[in-house]
Amino acid sequence: MTALGDIGGARSLYVELVAYGAGDVFNRHIFACAMTIAAGEPDRALTEALGLDGRRLADLCALHFPYGRALLPAFDLEAGTGEDAIEEPDLRQLLLEHRTRGVIEEEWLAAIVARRSLRPNHLWQDLGLFNRTDLSRLLDRHFEPLARRNIQDMKWKKFFYRELCRRDGVLVCKAPVCDVCSDYHHCFSDEEGEPLARLQPVPLRA
Ligand code: SF4
């Protein structure tokens, strides 16, 4: 275990996942972040918190975290993701239609981003990332044609849902241009905050 892995005697799940992970460094970082915050939600299974079923989660571990299954809360290969929220399949689909590289990681990320978008904080926080820049980099890298459309740098969650509404022909905006809109601060105010998951300890197994 690395010294960085210690938090007051507890082990940092993120640090251990990254330290003993494999493959692309940035992808390893973002998946470790998501797994870390999801593992910290005691009220639901890891597969439900991530939106990845047991087999896909096992595949992710096999590719990036060969020791991950020993560190993460136990999950069954047959475990499902729980019920989708109404908007979740559409957001997954939107992301997949704009994937950049065609790699399997983008399928996992589309599912994770759609599921974590249902949480109440800034999306970067609910993905367990360190800052908003991580999220922008993730989207630029893996869903670039979609990310490129956010030319005004809207909050990412707002941007996704506005894209979905536009696609369905739903009028969501209160004004023809953002500059005069009373909702401006809802769509554009900064997404500052503290990261939520970086120091999540490794879950204790019974
Ligand atoms: S600020 Fe107003 S006009 Fe601009 S995207 Fe938001 S709701 Fe639509």
What does this protein structure show overall?
The protein is mainly α. The chain folds into two domains: 82 residues, no CATH class; 109 residues, no CATH class. It is built from twelve helices and two strands; from the N terminus they run E-E-H-H-H-H-H-H-H-H-H-H-H-H. A two-stranded antiparallel sheet has the order 1-2. The longest helix is centred in the first third of the chain and has 15 residues. It is globular, with a radius of gyration of 17 Å. The structure holds iron/sulfur cluster (SF4). The site of iron/sulfur cluster (SF4) has 9 residues, from helix 12.
The strands making up the biggest β-sheet line up spatially as 1-2
How many beta-strand segments? 2
- Kindly report the oligomeric state of this protein: single chain
Bound molecules: iron/sulfur cluster
* CA radius of gyration: 17 Å
Number of helices: 12
Low-confidence parts: none
N-end to C-end Cα span = 21 Å
| Largest sheet data | 2 strands, antiparallel
- The helix-strand sequence is EEHHHHHHHHHHHH
